[in-house]
Design a protein that fits this description.
Blueprint: H1 3-7, H2 19-63, H3 67-73, H4 77-88, H5 92-95, H6 98-103, E1 114-115, H7 118-131, H8 133-137, E2 139-142, E3 147-153, E4 176-182, E5 184-188, E6 191-193, H9 194-198, H10 204-226, E7 241-243, E8 252-256, H11 269-278, H12 281-284, E9 288-291, H13 293-299, E10 311-312, E11 322-323, E12 326-330, E13 342-347, H14 349-352, E14 353-357, E15 362-366, E16 373-386, E17 392-396
Parallel strand pairs: 2-14, 7-8, 8-17, 9-12
Antiparallel strand pairs: 1-15, 3-4, 5-16, 6-16, 9-13, 10-11, 11-12, 13-17, 14-16, 15-16
Helix pairs in contact: 7-10
């Protein structure tokens, strides 16, 4: 056998390769593929591990986050939308809120802006109750109309004694008096610079509530006492005052001090006593004195015949001072003591004076009219008037 025949012995007739060489080549290819597969698995496991590590870090960050930051992220949608509208005029958030759809009859900015969010409105209402004096003791009603009617029965029904055989005569019929209280528009126009609004540390809502409440409280306080009824509430001092003996429906009865512009020099406290008992017994149980600080300074010095002060300060925090046992409300819009001034009122204001208002408060943001400042035009509908002329009496600093 030749050498050539010996070398080709056992070779694959197709490939011409030795079987041992073919196995070695195949094994090398398999190992290469396996190594590539192993590297791919390791890469995928590493990515998965990195992903879990990132999630753990986020969870740890959220767990260690301060409470205020968490509260900021979970802020109510209406509060975020309202803040965005105040700061930049962005009203997209407001348009999708349920409050706008339910509370506004015309829910577009051109018709007067948007309702204040519930949190801000509550703040304003609270300040009004504390600062607007007559509101604190008057009858306050919420209405959805342009006026509020109070029906008052200020006459008595007739009666008589009947015998067994005689015919009964016709008796008097009571009369119902209708008092119409129209609602007027109360407005405020505070402003702030855009730079101040852009400062995230500035509490826009608290500032806005404080400014509007202060403006509305001062305007209401004066109107409920002395308003003339022209585009504003009618104050109880706007009505004609007559001597209490001549009092009739439509005017207020007064008691004179007996001296022009001052209390009687001999018996100054007598006028206070006469004022209290000029009011009917049915009203005295819920009656309140109303006067300003200067008048209160003069009254609290008075003593009875036994040397005891008529004035007593409240025993607990927040409790009003009392005069002859009745609470005293300090209203700075009441007139000072002067000749013919009705500087003190006494009555059941819950029955005698009614404040009617719409519960909504509207705010329109105006960034154009007062550049570089932003104006906030706030409006509220409110009215007030005397609802029972027998429930309020006045003390007049006059001779008669």
């Amino acid at each position: 056998m030749s050498k050539t025949e010996t070398k080709t012995l056992g070779a694959d007739p197709v490939s011409g390769l030795n079987p041992a060489t073919e196995v070695k080549t195949a094994l090398a290819g398999f190992l290469s593929d396996f190594n590539n597969f192993q590297g791919e698995i390791k890469s995928r496991l590493q990515k998965q591990e990195d992903r879990f590590t990132m999630i753990d870090r986020k969870n740890m960050t959220a767990a260690n986050r301060p409470v205020l930051s968490q509260a900021a992220e979970t802020e109510a949608p209406h509060k975020k939308a309202f803040a965005a509208y105040l700061r930049s005029g962005d009203d997209d958030g407001l348009r999708g809120l349920e409050i706008e759809e339910k509370a506004l009859s015309t829910a577009v900015a051109a018709d007067g802006g948007y309702l204040v969010d519930p949190a801000t409105a509550d703040t304003i209402a609270g300040v009004l109750r504390n600062a607007s004096s007559i509101r604190a003791i008057a009858n306050v009603v919420n209405v959805e109309a342009t006026a509020y009617d109070v029906l008052v029965d200020h006459t008595d029904i007739g009666a008589g004694w009947a015998s067994e055989t005689a015919a009964s005569g016709e008796t008097g019929t009571p009369q119902i008096e209708r008092v119409t209280i129209p609602l007027h528009e109360l407005s405020a126009l505070p402003k702030a610079s855009q730079r101040l609004l852009d400062d995230s540390a500035f509490d826009v809502e608290d500032w806005l509530a404080t400014r509007i409440a202060d403006k509305f409280a001062r305007a209401e306080g004066g109107a409920f006492i002395s308003g003339d009824g022209v585009d504003k509430p009618t104050g109880f001092l706007n009505y004609t005052s007559v001597p209490d003996a001549s009092h009739a429906w439509g005017d207020l009865g007064y008691v004179a001090t007996g001296a022009a512009g001052e209390f009687d020099a001999t018996n100054p406290a007598d006028a206070i006593v006469d004022l209290v008992y000029a009011l009917g017994a049915r009203y005295r149980a819920n009656a309140t004195f109303v006067m300003n600080s200067k008048t209160a300074g003069a009254v609290r010095k008075m003593k009875d015949v036994d040397g005891r002060f008529l004035w007593s300060d409240g025993l607990a925090a927040g409790e009003p001072a009392r005069l002859m046992g009745y609470p005293v409300l300090i209203a700075e819009d009441m007139p000072d003591i002067a000749a013919d001034a009705t500087a003190i009122a006494f009555g059941d204001f819950g029955a005698g004076y009614t404040v009617a208002e719409r519960p909504d408060l509207r705010i329109l943001r105006d960034p154009f009219s007062a550049k570089p400042h932003v104006l906030f035009y706030a409006t509220k509908r409110v009215g007030g008037d005397v609802s029972d002329f027998s429930a309020i009496k006045l003390l007049k600093f006059a001779l008669t």
